[in-house]
Design goal:
Elements lengths: L1 H29 L3 E2 L9 E3 L7 E4 L2 E4 L5 E5 L6 E9 L5 E8 L13 E6 L3 H4 L11 E3 L6 E2 L2 E2 L2 E2 L13 E8 L2 E6 L2 E7 L7 E6 L4 E10 L18
Antiparallel strand pairs: 1-17, 2-5, 3-4, 4-17, 5-16, 6-13, 6-17, 7-8, 7-16, 8-9, 10-15, 11-12, 13-14, 14-15
Length: 241
């Protein structure tokens, strides 16, 4: 009798362990990168206010002409995630960026969007515009009246603590970690910037056209579990998702 009970206990324990491992494996399987840009066309992206000539795909690259100034957005919103993107400017002094937790529309008469911007400046931009070299690639800042607290303040902006970007024609890689209103940025293999307490924690991802040709590739995202995010902390939905 005791052997039968022990045998049943072992079987039950193995079943519970197997179920736990299966659930754990399923949870782990949901955490993985997937492409935001498929290398073939603009599936998954919506032009907001540029033109059909602004964005094109060639040889696996997403090519932005830079004109007219404006944005293209993801076709749905994201909350907590890790975004990877490789980019290269094709003109000295080029300016562009990625917007996160964006409203996905232009802000009033401004062609850009209300969001947190992850800036992409070519190395000659500060020289061409007679600005201090505190103006560098990898700045993080809220736009259009949005609020956040910079880790490395330069006004409302947070500046990178190390200059790691390469110049015109060379590829750079950003890893942008966005969780619960906090953003951390890695530039070419090292975390160098951050901000926190963003008033918005969920919204669209936008790519920026700002006057100069820029190329993108290997844009991919890992979605993380959601947090406690209120309606006020979520961007309005644009159209139907």
């Amino acid at each position: 009798m005791a052997n039968k009970i022990q045998h049943k206990f072992i079987i039950l324990s193995l079943l519970i362990l197997g179920l736990f491992c299966q659930v754990e494996a399923q949870e782990e399987a949901t955490l993985g990168f997937r492409p935001l840009f498929n290398g073939k066309d603009l599936t998954g992206w919506v032009d907001v206010n540029t033109s059909p000539e602004t964005w094109k795909v060639k040889d696996g690259l997403l090519i932005c002409s830079g004109l007219p100034i404006g944005v293209m957005r993801s076709d749905r919103q994201y909350e907590n995630f890790i975004l990877e993107v490789e980019w290269r400017h094709m003109e000295a002094g080029g300016n562009s960026g990625v917007f996160i937790w964006s409203e996905g529309t232009q802000f009033e008469d401004n062609p850009l969007t209300k969001a947190i911007e992850v800036q992409m400046l070519e190395l000659e931009w500060a020289v061409q515009h007679n600005r201090t070299d505190a103006y560098v690639h990898g700045e993080l800042f809220p736009t259009m009246g949005m609020k956040a607290i910079p880790d490395n303040p330069r006004g409302i902006r947070s500046k990178s603590i190390e200059k790691r970007c390469k110049g015109k024609g060379e590829w750079n890689k950003y890893v942008v970690v966005c969780v619960d209103g906090t953003v951390k940025l890695s530039v070419n293999g090292k975390f160098v910037n951050g901000l926190r307490a963003s008033e918005r924690k969920k919204g669209y991802i936008c790519l920026e056209a700002e006057g100069a040709e820029i190329h993108f590739r290997n844009i991919r995202i890992m979605e993380l579990p959601p947090g406690v995010t209120s309606a006020e902390q979520t961007a309005p939905v644009v159209g139907r998702e």
